[in-house]
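Notes taken during the Thursday session

The instructor put the following on the board and asked us to keep it in front of us for the whole hour. The protein is FkbM family methyltransferase. We were told not to look anything up and to reason only from what is written here. First, the residues (278 in total):
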Amino acid sequence: MLYDEIDWADVWIEQMKLHNEADEQVQQPDRWGTYENARRFWQSSRKSGKRLEKTLREIKHDSDSRILDIGAGPGSMAIPLAQRVSHVTAVEPAEGMTEVLKENIKHYHLNNVTCIQKNWEDASLEELDSPYDVIVASYSLHVPDIREAIEKIQQLSSGKVYIYWFAGATSWDKNYSRIWPQLHGRQYYPSPKCDVLYNVLYRMGIYPDMENFELIHETRFSSLDEAVQHYKPHYKIATNEQEQILRSHLEEILEKKGDELVQVGRSSRVKISWDNSH
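Then, after some discussion, the predicted structure tokens were revealed:
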């Protein structure tokens, strides 16, 4: 097939379908659905102050800006942005993440954040209350149809759009691939990466700026048991036998740092941005 004949939106759909097959085969709670995992994610994001501040500086905004945060999580970006702008709408499907997000809104005494607990593809244009000066999707567009997701973003945007995504195999892709056949009897398929996303945008007439950067992310545990409990939803663990495979795997990959066990995640990321205000 010639390059010009490739439907990149269909490539995304197929790759994401393969990636999500484990979810369909093994009924497990969403990895971020638990309060404990969401709280751990929030605490980890607090420790990346310099990286977060750099990201916030890159997102062009002022005190009058209305911002839409897609896949807001516990508020890693929504909370500091809400302290600087007029309004933030935070779309987040996971129950645990939403619970922590609402706690953080209360803790920081914010009254300018609207929470919508839905998947991006399920949130209606009416409840999203557009337009937005800035739309951010930080590693959150795990959607079945990326073209449809971008079309919705375009309908809501009157300014800058920032999408953060992955370039190449991540360290967790490699870790999953090592033991997925033992756990689930099939190959692990990673989610589609930025090459597919860029080509979808290009075919839509969107020619974005792209900036690559490396990221190291640490997740810390007080014990191996704690790490196993944390990663069981990630690896879709349903049986005692699978748990033992996971435990052995974590013993190999976790690094000992003082009294803690640390999962060091390394990945190449990309910031994709464009401006709809012209």
